[in-house]
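Revision sheet: structure tokens.
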Amino acid sequence: MTCGGFRVRYRDDERIFDTHLPVAGLLVLIGALSVVPFIASTYWLDVLNRIGIAIIGAIGLNILIGFTGQISIGHAAFLAVGAYTTAVLEAHLGLPFYLAIPAAALVTAVFGLLFGLPSLRLKGLYLAIATLAAHFITTYVIIHWEGMTGGVLGLLVPTPTLFGLALDSDARIFYVIFACVIPATFFAKNLFRTKVGRAFIAIRDRDVAAQVIGVSLFKYKLLAFSISSFYAGIAGGLMAHHSRILFSDAFTLLVAIDYLAMIIIGGMGSILGSIFGAIFMTLLPEILKLTATSLSGVYPQSFGLIASSRDVIFGLAIITFLIFEPEGLARIWMRIRTYWQLWPYAY
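Predicted:
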């Protein structure tokens, strides 16, 4: 009887899953997602759709910050570029949504590439301020380019159709969103098993040492910004179809902070952490809302009190994780999984 994992072929090292159990669990999860629109209410479908969009956006930001070590607080701007480009391509040029969203993602990647240029000379807080400029520039363009974006009046997004079927409900758009979530997650998971992903991690750990061993900082920093922005463009395009009408107020600086909170709470440098963080940050306000509603019959002031304390609770959650678990929910999950793998032994 043998104990432990023994790999005798290169193919074994290249496998994503070591056993068949994770594959079976993944298939069960996909099967469960496929039946969710038939059993979930409209409210929870809306929440799940926002979770799916947040997962894509959070993975993109985690690639840039958690894996490459580049600071960015302009993620809301990249989401806005993806959303408005998708809407413009469909409304003004008549492109179908399955072409408009990838095209908008490519435009967003180029936009991110331009604002990633300062990363070649700037680090830390200085780079964060440089990316913040992207937010204000994007907001200014959206508000003042009224002929294209609708300005403060908003921009109506055409209803997408697929094989003649209008995707005009949360149940139908659910499949589109999670059809993007699954490949986006697998791509990011595999990215860090390649030369590019390992170069990102080398830059994060010590950029000078990475340059000494032959990693091109110019190439890989800009590539990280482009990939991160591409993910934001996909999320923004899906956000446009989920909301059906775009306003500049939907892409405030608080949105960028929310995405930063997702990867901090979920776990920086972890794809699973991006998923956990997106779920946590999307469900938390809904849980607070449901709690306030249930208590309003007993304590009428509870709704306003809990609603006003939302930002305080978010802040306390971020501080708590930074102090007690800097590696986020992903690390907690790893400890739980390791415990049950080794149980009943303590080592």
